[in-house]
Amino acid sequence: MENYSVYGLALTEMEIDILTGNNQIKRVDILEDAGESLSPYIDIGQVEGSFVMLLGYWLTEQLIYDRQTGELLTNRTWNYKPPGARDIPIDFRIELLQKNPNPAGFMRSKATGEPPCCLAVSSIFAIQHALQSARKDAGLKREWVRLGAPTTPETIVLNSGTDISKFSLYNSAH
């Protein structure tokens, strides 16, 4: 079997709450190269599932190990958070690239299950953009915020530039 390339493009629009770190994926647009799709609805489902699965990797699934024993501490649903129904983008649009047959694939098709995993990183770029906007609104200088996997609500709050002293009900200066 010959090797072949699979192409994909994702655009992710997210909203973050800089006080809680919670985020919501407002919209995702994906264009996926499926070659000549044998079953477009199955391929679209594969793209959706792959993307959402990796949203967990990038946004929620934090693995914490005990430094002494190496034991996994986040091994149950109370503290290990795979993506749920509320993590799926509100507006999720998948389109398959047309007229792009794959001469090396079965019946000119291409894989659609694993390749879209790479596209979920767009969620991190969307959070980076939202954090830059929040930091600008707070009057902070523009600087790159280091984000990784997972970018949890805690990570978002800590990098938002929010000054906790601004959240008092009583200002002692007056």
Describe the structure.
The protein is of the alpha+beta class and 174 residues long. It has a single domain, classed as Aldehyde Oxidoreductase, domain 4. Helices cover 25% and strands 14% of the residues. It contains 3 helices and 3 strands. The chain has helices spanning 40-59, 122-137, 153-159, and strands at 8-16, 23-32, 91-96. The protein has a 3-stranded mixed β-sheet with strand order 1-2-3. The longest helix is centred in the N-terminal third of the chain and has 20 residues, at 40-59. The radius of gyration is 20 Å and the shape is elongated. The termini are far apart. The model has no long low-confidence stretch (mean pLDDT 89).
Blueprint of the fold:
Layout lengths: L7 E9 L6 E10 L7 H20 L31 E6 L25 H16 L15 H7 L15
Parallel strand pairs: 2-3
Antiparallel strand pairs: 1-2
Summary keywords:
single chain, 174 residues, alpha+beta, elongated, AldOxase/xan_DH_MoCoBD2
Helical segment count: 3
Largest pleated sheet: 3 strands, mixed
Low-confidence stretches: none
Strand order of the largest sheet: 1-2-3
Overall form? elongated
List the quaternary state of the chains: single chain
Helix content: 10-25%
- Assign the CATH architecture: 2-Layer Sandwich
Q: What is the H-and-E element order?
A: EEHEHH
Name of the CATH class: Alpha Beta
Spatial gap, N to C terminus: 76 Å
Number of domains: 1
Using only C-alpha atoms, the radius of gyration works out to 20 Å
Mean residue pLDDT: 89
Q: How many beta-strand runs?
A: 3
Approximately what portion of the residues adopt beta-strand conformation? 5-15%
